[in-house]
Amino acid sequence: MELIDIGCNLTHDSFDDDREQVMHHAREAGVVQMVVTGASAEGSRKALELARSFPGELFATAGVHPHHASEFDDETEALICDLVSRHGVVAVGETGLDYFRDFSPRPDQREAFERHIEIACATGSPMFLHMRDAHEDFLAMLKEFRDKLSDVVVHCFTGDRPQLRDYLDLDCHIGITGWICDERRGTHMQSFLADIPEDRLMVETDSPYLKPRDLKPKVKTRRNEPQWLPWIVNTVANSVGKSADEIAEQTTATAQRFFRLPSVD
Q1: Has residue 265 got a pLDDT over 80?
Q2: What's the half-sphere exposure (Cβ side, CA atoms, 13 Å) at 206?
């Protein structure tokens, strides 16, 4: 089984003491490529730096998470434009809207999101998107620009079936995380995962966040890691009535095509 983790925050400081060991464990679990999320100006720089240390295995996105949207200015925009032009950066993002926490004012979030969209339109880059509790505004902005964008993934999808249908109708890809393994809030998605066409489904850990709550055997850490991506794949497979090998093959092919990744040797 060869897997691609399309969203992991490997530059997070929780990995500072054992990052290469974490990557080793991921390789042993069959995770052959990983996309390191850029979620701030500095985080995007670090994501590319890390990706360049492991060519062909790690890749980066460049963007500013909506939590940091109020920090997005002309200098930040120029930086994201520069990073997106560099080898190793495979998408614009993480960007989008998050009205759950509102760490940045909503008008700032919408402005930053639109400026990211304009970068993606100008460069033809895929987009790596975040949405939480902002579906109507997020959908309206996507609709306005969708015909000018290339590929789009709504990463870490946690919504309901109508929201999923809205994104599928816009030809978006969907990223599934360990959220579906959380009996408190995520298992509702298992009933409609089969609605996602096989060529638009991808999997991710969002490490170090969203460790699968039902992971067995139990591991005494709150930190999520890419090595547990197969657990998510198994949950997806059980939900849609396919084998884990089928889901692995499909999601890996889709991720390589979406992010324009090189084939694994």
Answers
A1: no
A2: 22
Confidence band of 18 (pLDDT split at 50, 70, 90)? very high
Question: What Cα–Cα distance (Å) separates residue 102 from each residue in 38, 42, 94, 106, 231?
Answer: 19, 21, 16, 7, 31
pLDDT tens for residues 72-104?
999 999 999 999 999 999 999 999 999 998 999
pTM above 0.90, yes or no: yes
Which structural domain, as residue segments, surrounds residue 135? 3-259
What's 165's domain CATH number? 3.20.20.140
Give yes or no for a contact between 193 and 240, defined as CB atoms under 8 angstroms apart: yes
Domain assignment of residue 264, yes or no:
no
Total domains, the chain: 1
